[in-house]
Design a protein that fits this description.
495 residues; alpha+beta; Nucleotidyltransferase, domain 5; 2 domains; five-stranded mixed β-sheet; 24 strands; globular; carbohydrate metabolism; Carb_kinase_FGGY; ATPase_NBD; Sugar kinase; FGGY_N
């Protein structure tokens, strides 16, 4: 007797190092998950790019794998992706060059200075919510216009990973409000719409996409997309958003006072605030949902540093190195690391910052180095939290999400360093699950507390507070005392 088909939704996220997809029942149960790994290209120092064809090819592979067994009926699809990225296409939606990635790509420093001189740094913060940094999409567009003028002359449309998937699935040209709010200085966060005078100044000739909210339907799956993906034709697709904001939705961290910590290749922090707040050291954005506002931060590396260490040790793997880090203990045997291996985003906003490992001796071990990397992330989180609160934020609850929450001491170390407890939900797979939640809300009712209840609460251990307070002071001092040296070294790495 044939098995009865189960109704489900699909969520897919295009991340920095992989694309992830989930098939989820309408009750929130995770039916299947799948991953495709990839690596951004690095055409030069400080440059990170990716071909949009990778996003679509991996989306199709994921959906075909997830829907392969004939035991589910997919009712809707949700999408998200890293960002803000800049993918420019011509009027036929043919990509003109690989996409320039978010703040890990630091090529646009000269364009930032020029735009600030033209528009005014303080006025940009007031209108757009954020200072102009290498995180913003606007200067990346300006870089293409200045450095590749022949190519830019053919550019007509702007896409990000999530909106590109929407285009390929539905034929619709659209972007969500949150992603737009990271296109500084093109979007007015006070008015909630594109700011045409500055768009014409920074991105001339680009037809900016119509705006919708992340959970709104962008369109339905076309017959052509259905043939490529295995999805049913005619099902709705969410407008989608940037991955970190989908991560926050996946664990219910979108209420006033919430702070989401995303443990991944990079570390991201999203604090939900009742009114617009600005800081030159953070990003003020609109939220993924209507009526929400955020003050956000992001570290350029976190898990990327632990991956780097794993790859340095030929016989290393994360499980073994985590065990050795636990044996090392608080303070990593007197090692202190600055995690600025790809420059740093918030709160120091320094693309020329570099990683520093201080205190090395011949007696230090792999475990000490790995522990120092985990603690460096904790110190970076504490620095961001302090700046969020200095800007007027009021953090009442911290929710953790991402691969770094699974079976490792990372969350405990961060709680010990920050003195904050963290909620960990049952499912921490992240953005793809958040996309599935929004997809489910297109076809019925779905609430995160029913879908994904709290699994555990990580509480800070008071016995380590004095040690970490002392190390945190040294951490802050170490950047100040080494910045001149690493800034002098940074240009040598461009050759």
């Amino acid at each position: 007797m044939p098995r009865k088909s189960r109704n489900a939704v699909i969520g897919v996220d295009i991340g920095t190092s992989s694309s992830k997809g989930v098939l989820v029942g309408l009750d929130g149960a995770l039916i299947r998950s799948a991953v495709r790994e990839h690596t951004p290209t690095r055409p030069g120092p400080g440059r990170f790019e990716m071909d949009a064809s990778v996003w679509w090819q991996e989306f199709c592979a994921l959906t075909r794998e997830l829907t392969g067994p004939d035991d589910t009926t997919v009712l809707a699809a949700g999408v998200s992706g890293m960002g803000p990225c800049v993918l420019l296409t011509d009027e036929h939606d043919t990509p003109l060059r690989p996409a320039i990635l978010y703040g890990v790509d630091t090529r646009s420093v000269r364009q930032i200075r020029r735009i600030e001189e033209r528009l005014g740094a303080e006025e940009i913060i007031r209108r757009c919510g954020s200072a102009l940094t290498t995180q913003a999409a606007g200067p990346k567009i300006a870089w293409v216009a200045e450095e590749e003028p022949g190519l830019y002359a053919r550019a007509r449309r702007l896409y990000m990973p999530s909106s590109w998937l929407v285009r390929m699935l539905t034929g619709t040209y659209v972007l969500d409000h949150h992603s737009a709010s990271q296109c500084t200085p093109l979007y007015d966060t006070l008015a909630g719409e594109w700011y045409d005078p500055w768009a014409a100044e920074v991105a001339p000739g680009i037809e900016l996409p119509p705006l919708r909210w992340s959970g709104e339907a962008a369109g339905t799956v076309t017959a052509e997309a259905a043939a490529a993906t295995g999805l049913p034709p005619g099902i709705p697709v969410t407008t989608g958003t940037i991955d970190a904001w989908a991560e926050a939705l996946s664990v219910g961290a979108q209420h006033t006072g919430d702070l989401m910590l995303m443990y991944g290749t990079t570390m991201f922090l999203i604090h939900t605030v009742p009114k617009p707040l600005t800081s030159p050291s953070l990003w003020g954005t609109v939220g993924a949902l209507p009526g929400t506002r955020n003050l956000a931060g992001g570290m350029a590396t976190s898990g990327a540093v632990t991956n780097w260490l794993r790859d340095l040790f030929a016989d290393g793997d994360h499980a073994e190195l985590t065990r050795l880090a636990a044996e090392s203990g608080p303070g990593a045997g007197g090692l202190l690391m600055l995690p600025y291996f790809s420059g740093e985003r918030t709160p120091i906003m320094d693309p020329d910052a570099r990683g520093v490992i201080a205190g090395l001796t011949l007696s230090h071990t792999r475990g000490d180095l790995y522990r120092a990397a985990l603690e460096a992330t904790g110190f970076g989180v504490r620095h961001n939290i302090e700046v969020i609160e200095e800007a007027g934020g009021d953090i009442r609850r911290v929710v953790a999400v991402g691969g770094g929450t699974q079976g490792a001491p990372w969350t405990q170390i961060v709680s010990d360093i920050t003195g904050r407890q963290q909620e960990v939900r049952s499912i921490t797979i992240g953005a793809s699950y958040g996309g599935a939640l929004l997809a489910a809300q297109l076809v019925g009712e779905a609430g995160i507390d029913d879908w994904n209840p709290v699994r555990e609460t990580v509480r800070p251990r008071g016995e380590h507070r004095r040690r970490y307070d002392e190390l945190y002071g040294l951490y802050r001092r170490l950047y100040r005392e080494t910045s001149a040296t690493v800034h002098a070294l940074a240009p040598l790495q461009q050759r």
